Amino acid sequence: YKDPRVRLHVGDAVEFLRNSPEGKYDAIIVDSSDPIGPAQELVEKPFFQTIARALKPGGVLSNLAESMWLHTHLIQDMLSICREVFKGGVHYAWASVPTYPSGVIGFLLCAKDGPPVDFLTPVNPIEKIEGATKDGRE
Asked: Which intervals hold domain PABS (predicted)?
């Protein structure tokens, strides 16, 4: 976190974002707890609207979005809400994480309307990273 453009905030995300100026952030990363009890609001429309308000045009959100094997209905609800709120694009992505239940964790990748964001084409594809491939094999 030595880049002067980066600010890390740890705390109540809902309160922090409610108090943030409109259009301030290029990106917001939400690594929240499971949506149980008081954390339920982290998967509801007002929370995503608050995030969208805090993002600049073309700003992006990466939001923890549960396992596709265990929480399909929740993911569908979140996708539906985010497609209403984020007009620049909404995608579900997942990664293998052996320590998570089912071994998979998901993410919502959302973009506010503005400059287009292409989530499907990597900025730095693995083929361009020195040492990522060996002997021409991937």
From this structure: 1-112
